[in-house]
Amino acid sequence: MEGRTEILKTSTWYKFIAEEMSVSLVMPCTASNTFVNHHNPVVYVTIALLRLKNKPEWLSTVFDESCISSMIQNLTLTNISRRL
Question: Which InterPro entries does this chain map to (predicted)?
Answer without folding.
Answer: PRD1 (IPR044968)
